[in-house]
Give the backbone structure.
Amino acid sequence: QMFVWDGNGGGGTKYLTVLEPSNVAGEYGATAADFGPTLTTDPIEAEVVEVNDGLYNPYITDGCEMVTNSAELTGKIALVDRGGCFFQLKALTAEEAGAVAVIICNFEDDPIGMAGVGTLAQPTIPTIMIGGIDCGTIRSFVGSGLKVKLAAPSNTGPEFLDGDFDNGIIAHEFAHGISLRLTGGPSTGGCLSNAEQMGEGWSDFFSLVTSTHIDDAGPDRRGVGTFVFRQDVDGKGIRRYPYSTDMAVNPLTYGDVASNTEVHAVGEVWTAALWDLYWALIDEYGFDEDLMNGDKGNNLAVRLVMDGMKLQGCEPGFLDGRDGILLADELLTGGANSCLIWKAFAGRGMGHDAIQGSSNSASDQIEGFEPFPLCIEELKITKSVSPLVNAGELIDVELNIVNHKPETLTGITVNETLPAGLTFVSGSGSITPTIDGDNITFGIGDMIYQQEETVRYQLKTDEDFFSKQLNFEGAENDGIGWSPLQIEGDNIWALSGNSFEGNYAFEVESPNYESQQLVVMDEEITITGDNPVIRFYQRHNTEAGQDAGVFQVSDDFGGGVWSNLNEEDIFRGGYSGAVDYQTFVIPNFFSWYGNSDGYKATYIDMNDWKGSNLFRRFNFGSSADNAVGAPLSGYWTVDNVELMDMVNYNPETCISYDGGTTVCTEASGRGTVVESQMISGTRQVQDAGLSFGVSPNPASDQLNISIIAEKTNEAQLSLVTIDGKVVKTTSIVATPARQNLTLSVSDVPAGFYIVRIANRNGAVNKKVVIN
């Protein structure tokens, strides 16, 4: 069915036009609110800024609370999430913050109607809603020049356009018949019902190749369904991005599948890879306008894709499809194009190091960008070491050397200079090295093409060089210092006996319904040291790509604005990938999910936060989706959260040969980390030079606070909610003589709170319960 398409092209009226940046420019369907002013043909043009009340999510919110970024919103168009309060209240909140219009993002694919509320004031700025897919497309450009126009459309021409006149739609639908019949072989049908199937992708590919001309080029913008959307051929059509070999125009990679598992969104990623392959073959062999009998690169690309369908088997995933095309090339050309094919797929995250997982899940893949090893013709060296040792222990080192240069290489040597704290263990080398001070050299000799060699040896660490433990939180002592905060659902964080170390850890259930749960660490820490690193141990078994957790920090205790840690700063135990947009209503939100197969250590470089006073929390979210094979009731468990001043060893190892260049490498994960030790006689890094006690706890009407300080100093006594809002505050003078103060809490709602005393040196916190 090609359908008839109304003047809006589906998905609502084209109230929204993205002007910049160019790769998401175009018209987007939206619904208009039943409250506030109506959009006219007189446009509102402005930059888009996300409303941020900073309460639960680090970057975006629902706009139901007090806005924290009013200065940024003034004169701009506000982007707000659906949920949490009336649509009309969101518009009023944004207007009060200075916005000139409001775009509400739905968490469902398409926009819906927005009724007014008679008891609320009428906003004086217009409000529209866009669907979740469109919002996910444009949202990542907020803060990076996203400029839009809001106006009533002034379309001319017929009320409907017939899909039968759009060659791309006809080719797309016809291609479904091809892929369904060829996949799985000539006697098997129904092989494209699995989650990671590429049917929509093949159909888009054939839509493109049957309408390509000799004067086209790979980087050109090409849309699917542009006719029925009343766009030029370089519009984005009915997809998130136009197709292009230019990654700045179409940035999709294999890892993006998990963040949007809708069947057309999955297909877009596959088409992007096939489109890269198509143009790589044209660049190699040219373009033939005879689509039926031609013998150039475009003809070969279609042949390989068609034959790949026949060879890939039933219920294929992306890597099965890639391998089917590689096999097709082997059978057709003897593998003449294998490296070209590997390069095209590797560029979109489907390289030699990618992992597909189950083809029945669209969320458990791991993208990789490495081409097939033999396609990189050079002498290679990789290095692995003991990941963690105690000070004074031995590090096991293994070097793997392989010659992928198609010739015999002579005079190969490996050289390494040891840093302070490391010494070579005599007699430990599988090859005896030459030692000159801190420099060790292994003579490898000659290696023929594809020959591999392994060198093993040991290094002794200095017992006086170790990581210093600056702050440590287990889950012992009945979980004191950890405060659960229930946002949505009944799966609250709680103590669990499934600990990494000691008796307890903190754990949250991963259910098959929507939820969001926090556990906040009460104690504020100051990031100090020469090489500050946060380490914690976690295990998880959740629905991949749907139910996920993230570690967040805040240096704004009163405002409660929380930040994720950058992916590149997590150098061990990194994120599983981007979670589905619906889970946190945030696009490209990297987090941990899936099955970790027990505990693993996560290490985070905190050098960018050096000098900051930080609070920490673990944020877990789940969606209502529950795919086949996903755990019906999973978990996320965390334990042993530590700030350390890390000592690690990762000396560079270099290899060279006669007449060739020198290649150097290091071990992954920053080499060997030396285990931390507590520094005797030093106080915690957040110590403010005072201590205090609170009673009773729990309390009903009054808190009795007993304070003593090392020396007289001014301080601030505050009562703060777990999510960071200051309820009461007063100035005090702390002295070496013990003081007894009282703080009335009779007017404070029941719940968990933190009593905080802060001075210029730091802060001390204690958790209290008010009945």
Q: What stands out?
A: The chain has ten helices and 43 strands. The longest strand covers residues 515-526. The radius of gyration is 30 Å.
